[in-house]
Specification:
Layout: E1 10-14, E2 20-26, E3 29-37, H1 41-54, E4 60-67, E5 73-77, H2 87-95, E6 109-116, H3 123-141, E7 144-157, H4 159-171, E8 175-181, E9 186-193, H5 196-209, E10 217-227
Antiparallel strand pairs: 1-7, 2-3, 3-6, 4-5, 4-6, 7-9, 7-10, 8-9
Helix pairs in contact: 2-3
Pfam families: DUF1949, Impact_N
Domain Impact N-terminal: 27-139
Protein name: Xaa-Pro dipeptidase
């Protein structure tokens, strides 16, 4: 979700790419968890619809999702399981997931647990544990990224200097957005934290690296994925 008006400036989400799957067996019942990065309710619900078609013979397709940098959209469904034994435990597993010590900020994630009944009743407590553990275990193994709202700043430099400057910036830990080449100049874009001090520090760094020949211009903001750990 490209929410530029959110209070949060960063949150954790799934790495972009294929859905992540993990299966857990509890007393012969199969719990197949599928996680998808989803920035809208439509994308989250598409996962449920697709899995209903794929696992059409399963008894339950329980779901939960949380969306938005501020986690303003939160939904869950028990899909026929006793009320409160599936969707809510799944949602709590998403919401309470610690992505750093004392930090729970996972969002833009849709989780579906497909259950094939194994013939042994688990009881309400057993179902709560199974659905919660299914999502938690999948999150233990799924690839996560830090998604930060960054200010995109640009600078025009001679073509001959672009490669060296880009390497120097990367070596200094600068997040590069992209580089474009025009007839007269190359335009390098970098992503910096969206605050005045960080932008000023980046401008000073550019002045030093280019001996004052390039000027950094601040543009709009974008959500940028950064690796975790």
């Amino acid at each position: 979700m490209q929410d530029h008006d959110s209070r949060a400036t960063a949150y954790t989400t799934l790495a972009a790419g294929k859905d992540f799957r993990h299966e857990l067996e509890v007393k012969r019942s199969r719990f197949i968890t599928v996680l998808r990065r989803a920035g809208t309710e439509d994308a989250a619900r598409d996962l449920v619809a697709g899995l209903r078609r794929e696992f059409h013979d399963a008894r339950h397709h329980c779901s939960a999702f949380v969306i938005g940098a501020d986690r303003t959209v939160q939904r869950s469904s028990d899909d026929g399981e006793p009320a409160g034994t599936a969707g809510i435990p799944m949602l709590e597993a998403l919401l309470k997931r610690e992505t750093a010590p004392g930090v729970s900020d996972l969002s833009d994630v849709s989780a579906v647990v497909v259950r094939y009944f194994g013939g042994i009743l688990l009881g309400a407590g057993g179902l709560v544990r199974a659905y919660s553990e299914s999502v938690s275990t999948a999150l233990d193994l799924a690839p996560l990224v830090r998604r930060s709202r960054l200010r995109i700043c640009s600078m025009a430099v001679p073509h001959a200097e672009a490669g060296r400057l880009e390497n120097d910036l990367r070596a200094a830990g600068t997040v590069m957005a992209d580089t474009s080449y025009g007839e007269r100049h190359a335009v390098l874009r970098i992503a910096v934290p969206d605050d005045a001090a960080a932008i000023a520090a980046a401008a000073d760094r550019i002045q030093q690296l280019t001996a004052g020949t390039a000027t950094l211009a601040a543009g709009g903001t974008e959500w940028v994925d950064e690796s975790v750990g």
